[in-house]
Amino acid sequence: MMNNNIRGENLEVTPAIRDYVEKKIKKLERYFSHAPDANVHVNLKVYPDKTSKVEVTIPLPHLVLRAEERHEDMYAAVDLITDKLERQIRKHKTKVNRKFREKGSPKELFTNVDDVSANHQEKEEDKLEVVRTKQFDLKPMDSEEAILQMNLLGHNFFVYTDAETNQTNIVYRRKDGKYGLIETN
Asked: What predicted TM-score, i.e. pTM, was given to this entire model?
Protein backbone atom coordinates (compact mmCIF):
# COMPACT_ATOMS: atom_id res chain seq x y z
CA MET A 1 0.00 0.00 0.00
CA MET A 2 1.31 3.43 -0.88
CA ASN A 3 1.23 5.72 2.15
CA ASN A 4 0.99 9.38 1.23
CA ASN A 5 2.88 11.94 3.29
CA ILE A 6 1.54 15.23 1.93
CA ARG A 7 2.90 18.47 3.31
CA GLY A 8 2.42 22.08 2.37
CA GLU A 9 4.76 25.07 2.48
CA ASN A 10 3.05 28.48 2.52
CA LEU A 11 -0.13 26.53 1.87
CA GLU A 12 -2.78 24.73 3.87
CA VAL A 13 -3.31 21.23 2.49
CA THR A 14 -7.09 21.22 2.14
CA PRO A 15 -9.08 17.97 1.95
CA ALA A 16 -9.76 18.74 -1.73
CA ILE A 17 -6.05 19.03 -2.58
CA ARG A 18 -5.20 15.97 -0.45
CA ASP A 19 -7.90 13.87 -2.18
CA TYR A 20 -6.75 15.00 -5.63
CA VAL A 21 -3.09 14.16 -4.94
CA GLU A 22 -3.97 10.79 -3.39
CA LYS A 23 -6.21 9.92 -6.35
CA LYS A 24 -3.45 10.76 -8.84
CA ILE A 25 -0.73 8.88 -6.91
CA LYS A 26 -3.02 5.84 -6.57
CA LYS A 27 -3.18 5.65 -10.40
CA LEU A 28 0.55 4.81 -10.38
CA GLU A 29 -0.27 1.51 -8.64
CA ARG A 30 -1.49 0.04 -11.94
CA TYR A 31 2.15 -0.24 -13.02
CA PHE A 32 2.95 -2.67 -10.22
CA SER A 33 2.08 -6.36 -9.89
CA HIS A 34 0.68 -5.43 -6.48
CA ALA A 35 0.69 -2.10 -4.66
CA PRO A 36 4.11 -1.65 -3.05
CA ASP A 37 4.54 -0.67 0.58
CA ALA A 38 5.92 2.75 -0.22
CA ASN A 39 6.02 6.03 1.62
CA VAL A 40 5.16 8.65 -0.97
CA HIS A 41 6.57 12.05 -0.01
CA VAL A 42 4.64 14.94 -1.56
CA ASN A 43 5.65 18.54 -0.94
CA LEU A 44 3.31 21.30 -2.14
CA LYS A 45 4.61 24.85 -2.14
CA VAL A 46 3.20 28.22 -3.17
CA TYR A 47 5.59 31.08 -3.90
CA PRO A 48 4.81 34.79 -3.34
CA ASP A 49 4.20 35.22 -7.09
CA LYS A 50 1.41 32.58 -6.67
CA THR A 51 3.39 29.95 -8.63
CA SER A 52 2.86 26.43 -7.31
CA LYS A 53 5.57 23.79 -7.01
CA VAL A 54 4.90 20.09 -6.44
CA GLU A 55 7.66 17.61 -5.52
CA VAL A 56 7.05 13.86 -5.26
CA THR A 57 9.56 11.23 -4.08
CA ILE A 58 8.73 7.51 -4.01
CA PRO A 59 11.59 5.28 -2.78
CA LEU A 60 11.38 1.72 -4.18
CA PRO A 61 13.88 -1.19 -4.05
CA HIS A 62 15.67 -0.67 -7.37
CA LEU A 63 14.46 2.79 -8.16
CA VAL A 64 13.71 6.12 -6.56
CA LEU A 65 10.93 7.86 -8.44
CA ARG A 66 11.29 11.62 -8.10
CA ALA A 67 9.81 14.53 -9.99
CA GLU A 68 9.04 18.16 -9.48
CA GLU A 69 6.87 20.55 -11.42
CA ARG A 70 6.00 24.26 -11.28
CA HIS A 71 2.76 25.69 -12.60
CA GLU A 72 0.39 28.56 -11.93
CA ASP A 73 -2.32 26.03 -11.00
CA MET A 74 -1.59 23.49 -8.23
CA TYR A 75 -3.93 20.89 -9.76
CA ALA A 76 -2.26 21.24 -13.16
CA ALA A 77 1.16 20.78 -11.50
CA VAL A 78 -0.10 17.55 -9.87
CA ASP A 79 -1.32 16.30 -13.28
CA LEU A 80 2.02 17.09 -14.90
CA ILE A 81 4.02 15.44 -12.13
CA THR A 82 2.03 12.19 -12.28
CA ASP A 83 2.64 12.14 -16.05
CA LYS A 84 6.39 12.49 -15.37
CA LEU A 85 6.31 9.69 -12.81
CA GLU A 86 4.43 7.41 -15.21
CA ARG A 87 7.05 8.04 -17.89
CA GLN A 88 9.82 7.23 -15.39
CA ILE A 89 8.15 3.94 -14.45
CA ARG A 90 7.57 2.95 -18.09
CA LYS A 91 11.16 3.85 -18.99
CA HIS A 92 12.50 1.87 -16.05
CA LYS A 93 10.41 -1.18 -16.90
CA THR A 94 11.45 -1.22 -20.56
CA LYS A 95 15.14 -0.30 -20.28
CA VAL A 96 16.54 -1.02 -16.83
CA ASN A 97 14.74 -4.33 -16.40
CA ARG A 98 15.74 -5.89 -19.74
CA LYS A 99 18.34 -8.03 -18.07
CA PHE A 100 15.90 -9.14 -15.35
CA ARG A 101 13.27 -10.47 -17.76
CA GLU A 102 14.65 -14.00 -17.59
CA LYS A 103 13.96 -13.95 -13.83
CA GLY A 104 10.31 -13.08 -14.30
CA SER A 105 8.11 -10.13 -15.04
CA PRO A 106 9.77 -6.71 -14.70
CA LYS A 107 6.82 -5.71 -12.54
CA GLU A 108 8.15 -8.04 -9.83
CA LEU A 109 10.98 -5.60 -9.20
CA PHE A 110 8.52 -2.98 -8.04
CA THR A 111 6.97 -4.96 -5.18
CA ASN A 112 8.89 -4.06 -2.00
CA VAL A 113 9.96 -0.79 -0.45
CA ASP A 114 13.49 -0.07 0.60
CA ASP A 115 14.42 1.87 3.69
CA VAL A 116 15.70 4.90 1.84
CA SER A 117 15.89 8.06 3.85
CA ALA A 118 16.58 11.52 2.53
CA ASN A 119 17.60 14.18 4.99
CA HIS A 120 17.56 17.74 3.69
CA GLN A 121 19.23 20.51 5.67
CA GLU A 122 19.50 24.01 4.33
CA LYS A 123 21.74 26.83 5.63
CA GLU A 124 22.79 30.19 4.20
CA GLU A 125 26.30 31.32 5.11
CA ASP A 126 29.70 31.38 3.39
CA LYS A 127 30.29 30.27 -0.19
CA LEU A 128 32.22 27.22 1.05
CA GLU A 129 29.42 26.25 3.41
CA VAL A 130 27.47 23.06 2.73
CA VAL A 131 23.90 24.18 2.00
CA ARG A 132 22.24 20.81 1.54
CA THR A 133 22.94 17.32 2.86
CA LYS A 134 21.36 14.11 1.65
CA GLN A 135 21.67 10.68 3.18
CA PHE A 136 20.69 7.54 1.33
CA ASP A 137 21.47 3.83 1.11
CA LEU A 138 23.69 2.81 -1.80
CA LYS A 139 22.13 0.12 -3.94
CA PRO A 140 24.20 -2.70 -5.48
CA MET A 141 24.07 -2.39 -9.28
CA ASP A 142 26.27 -2.27 -12.36
CA SER A 143 27.40 0.90 -14.13
CA GLU A 144 24.70 0.60 -16.83
CA GLU A 145 21.94 0.57 -14.22
CA ALA A 146 23.60 3.49 -12.41
CA ILE A 147 23.66 5.54 -15.63
CA LEU A 148 19.99 4.81 -16.30
CA GLN A 149 19.10 5.70 -12.70
CA MET A 150 21.10 8.95 -12.98
CA ASN A 151 19.25 9.84 -16.18
CA LEU A 152 15.87 9.02 -14.61
CA LEU A 153 16.64 11.39 -11.75
CA GLY A 154 17.93 14.07 -14.12
CA HIS A 155 21.28 14.31 -12.30
CA ASN A 156 24.81 14.78 -13.68
CA PHE A 157 26.30 12.08 -11.44
CA PHE A 158 25.18 9.05 -9.44
CA VAL A 159 26.84 7.28 -6.49
CA TYR A 160 26.26 3.52 -6.14
CA THR A 161 27.74 0.28 -4.85
CA ASP A 162 29.18 -1.90 -7.62
CA ALA A 163 27.41 -5.28 -7.45
CA GLU A 164 30.57 -7.24 -8.38
CA THR A 165 33.27 -5.47 -6.35
CA ASN A 166 31.08 -4.13 -3.52
CA GLN A 167 33.00 -0.84 -3.84
CA THR A 168 31.46 2.62 -3.95
CA ASN A 169 31.59 3.98 -7.51
CA ILE A 170 30.40 7.13 -9.25
CA VAL A 171 29.12 7.53 -12.79
CA TYR A 172 28.88 11.00 -14.30
CA ARG A 173 27.91 12.76 -17.51
CA ARG A 174 30.85 14.37 -19.30
CA LYS A 175 30.66 17.68 -21.15
CA ASP A 176 30.89 15.78 -24.46
CA GLY A 177 27.67 13.91 -23.55
CA LYS A 178 29.42 10.60 -22.87
CA TYR A 179 29.69 8.95 -19.44
CA GLY A 180 32.56 8.59 -17.02
CA LEU A 181 33.13 6.12 -14.19
CA ILE A 182 35.07 6.80 -10.99
CA GLU A 183 36.07 3.63 -9.14
CA THR A 184 37.12 3.80 -5.49
CA ASN A 185 39.61 1.55 -3.69
From this structure: 0.54
